[in-house]
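Summary for the funding panel

The consortium committed to producing paired sequence-structure records for every protein in the target list. Below we show the first two records in order, beginning with the earlier of the two.
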Amino acid sequence: MQTMWLGGAEWLAVLRIGLGLWWLESWRHKDKKEWFKGGGIGWAAGIAEKHRWAVVRSGFDAVVRPRPRVMAYVVAYAELALGLGLILGFLTPIALVAGLVLNLVYLVLMIHDWAEQGQNLMMALISLVALFAMSWQAWSLDAALGIFL
């Protein structure tokens, strides 16, 4: 498929790179000093405590609450890795699936706050389109290295 400026594979690369920039912005805008002291995880704990689904409360208590500092680093650096991986097109299918999972976790945690859901739903949709349309075919290290052909 050819459009006025770019072919289909290039437009999918634009979509993938845009999603990567979105993840990079999610990482960039965090107040790292406060985040790594537990601010972000503390905020999430308050939401999880009042969550309408018991599985979310118990899952948070089992996985995140015992290790808030580690989880703060995991979340922040996962967003950074997703952003860089998608922008560079390196291990793209893995980054897209990981991003989709992270967006779904955010979506489930914040299920009661629909103002927050627009971003997570849009990023999840872009991840699905980019994954199933194989957005790593152009402008990516994956294509240059012959990975995931």
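The next record, for a separate protein in the list, is shown here:
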Amino acid sequence: MLWPMIAIALGFLGIAVLGILAVRVFVEVRRLARQVGETSQRIQRAAQDLERAATPLAARAHESLRD
């Protein structure tokens, strides 16, 4: 009777450990997703800034090629 109780207790502890690890993974995945979203927005803003800065240069280059 002792061994089945020990097996059940160990099984429960194993499931509890897996549950705790699953919660930690979930929290880290949410944090990573938030960071990816912020980085994506930064990249998008930088691309827009680059496009705004390159537009006058491209227009000048196009004008100089016409001349």
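Regarding this second record: The helical segments are 2-66. The radius of gyration is 29 Å.
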